[in-house]
Amino acid sequence: MAIREIIILPDKQLRLVSKPIEKITPEIRKLADDMFETMYDAPGIGLAAIQVAQPLRLITMDLAKKTEDGENNPQPRVFINPQILSSSEETSVYEEGCLSIPEYYEEVERPARVRVRFTDLDGKVHEEDAEGLFATCIQHEIDHLNGILFVDYLSKLKRDRVLKKFAKAAKRAAE
Ligand code: GNR
Ligand code: NI
């Protein structure tokens, strides 16, 4: 296993639409392993492959440390080619952060429950209902696969402020 570099704003790769995974090869398994190591090291509760510069529809997640017993609480797991089948009318608000937008947190409103279809590393297709932090996190990660970041849901004022801050920081770092 290896820790990979997490790309951060304003890296344009974060805006790519990731490609479906057609075959679960040893390279895909290695990528998933490395994503877990990178995610735990960061630390984060979820990671999309594009965050380690691989534009593939692959997500790792581990909510074990963050959720209470009784909440629907998946173990360390991999989501390949995840799709949201339906979303609740009811919404919930979570303070979100993103490893690609370090040290920035804001409340985001999303559907409170979603039904998700995905493939696991054995090629088995699953359908599951997500709620609570699981629902928020899977929506945040699927957004990454489509080039969407949580700051896109904020007011233009807040979004422009954070995008500007990261553009400035990158410019300073390049000097
Ligand atoms: O570690 C993370 N925490 C988090 C908190 C609230 C909502 C979403 C997340 S995902 C984030 C890791 C990340 O950037 N995944 O893409
Ligand atoms: Ni993120």
Largest sheet: 5 strands, antiparallel
Low-confidence stretches: none
Number of strands: 7
| Ions and ligands | ligand GNR, nickel (II) ion
Fourth CATH level, the homologous superfamily? Peptide deformylase
Cα(first) to Cα(last) distance is 33 Å
Number of helical regions: 3
Query: What coarse outline follows from CA principal-axis ratios?
Result: globular
Please tell me the overall pLDDT. Answer: 94
Structural category:
alpha+beta
> Roughly how many Å is the radius of gyration?
16 Å
Broad CATH class: Alpha Beta
| Range of helix content | 25-40%
Give me the strand/helix succession: HEEEEEEEHH
The overall number of domains is: 1
What does this structure look like?
The chain is of the alpha+beta class. It has a single domain, classed as Peptide Deformylase. It has three helices and seven strands. It has a five-stranded antiparallel β-sheet with strand order 1-2-3-6-7. The chain has a two-stranded antiparallel ribbon with strand order 4-5. Strand 6 (113-119) and strand 7 form a beta hairpin. The longest helix is centred in the last third of the chain and has 19 residues, at 156-174. The mean pLDDT is 94. Residues 44-48, 51, 94, 96-100, 136-137, 140-141, 144 line the site of ligand GNR.
